[in-house]
Amino acid sequence: MSGNLVIRxxxxxxxEAVRVLDAAVxxxxxxxxxxxxxxxxxxxxxxKGDLVPQLADLGPVAAQAEPAHRVVATISKVIRTPEAxxxxxxxxxxxxVVLNLSGMRPGEHIRVVADSFCGKVAVFVPENAVVIDExxxxxxxxxxxxxxxxxxxxxxxISGRVTMGNIKVFRGEARHW
Length: 177
Fold this sequence. Notes:
This is DUF1707 domain-containing protein. This protein is about 20% helix and about 35% strand. The chain has about 180 residues and is an alpha/beta fold. It folds into two domains: about 5-65, no CATH class; about 70-170, no CATH class. The strands form two sheets. Strands 1, 3, 5, 7, 8, 10 and 11 form a seven-stranded parallel beta sheet that branches. It has a five-stranded parallel beta sheet with strand order 2-4-6-12-9, with no helix packed on it. The relative contact order is 0.14.
């Protein structure tokens, strides 16, 4: 075994492996059941060698995972409409980040890592979007407004931490920002 494969993994490397799996399920190369199983194994992985079996059959695409789109607002307000990305990392510190994802098409998947410290993150998604919130809040608030209409819409997976701030997800067009 190569010495590089016994090096301990960082959380960022695990996130990158999950991004590869997200891309594979979005492209139809693995099923949602396989995605769930492999994701559990990725988070349990301790070394780079532990990741090899989970990504090896995904080919060169696994090595070409696109970088996350980053948005940072510090004592300010930043409005973005990220396109053609699978992940957005948003950070609001005493400010606001507004992400307009309302143009997402059915079948698209995006991960939003939203961190807020004394700030807010507002995310606008299509009416039919499936929103999965996996994040945490400490003296803060996380809210998803509206109910997904129908099935087959885009999937927005939100993680990250809110500390003395908030994250709000709105369904429909971003009109008032």
